[in-house]
Design brief:
alpha+beta; four-stranded antiparallel sheet
Length: about 210
Amino acid sequence: MSTFLDHQNWRYATKKFDSTKKISKEDLNTLKEAIRLSSSSYGLQLYKVFIIENPKLRAKIQPAAWGQSQIVDASHLVVFANQTNVTDADIDSYLKNVAETRNIPETALSGYGDLMKGGIGAKSQDEKAIWTSKQTYLALANLLNAAAELKIDVTPMEGFIAAQVNEILGFNELGLNASLIAPIGYRSEDDATQHHKKVRKSSEELFITL
């Protein structure tokens, strides 16, 4: 656990990336697997994760992210896109995956499926979109933690105009919405922020035991 905490103290929201350093294919695959293994409500993973390498595409996204340099300077740009709607078909697809993975009949999962369909179906369209968006934050947490272990920097971002990113990446036609952006790569030696002390609330102020 002390190693984990060391990694957490090392990481910070990188302000300036070294554009000459690229993440290896092996490390990128590790980060992708960490995201894939993330927890999500019911295990449904109602989102897609886009790994954007194309420099021209990233240059188009940069103005929608208030011109932040990390968008184009980082090794890769990760965009988490939540589904804007959830249907019974999404649940049926998940149950089929469960049945095949665990070698059990789908009929054994019908009760669980009905539970999910009832709970999720009762939500409004806006509630579904908010709920699926929240799931991407869980996936981002896995990315942050895995990247810190590999000494790869991540800048989690909410500072962008989702409607513009959706338009650029064609998300509207896919029923998706850009909920989070995370440039990943290696900090520049010129980024003075890396030398700042981490500022957090004290344990006494943050935690309440009842």
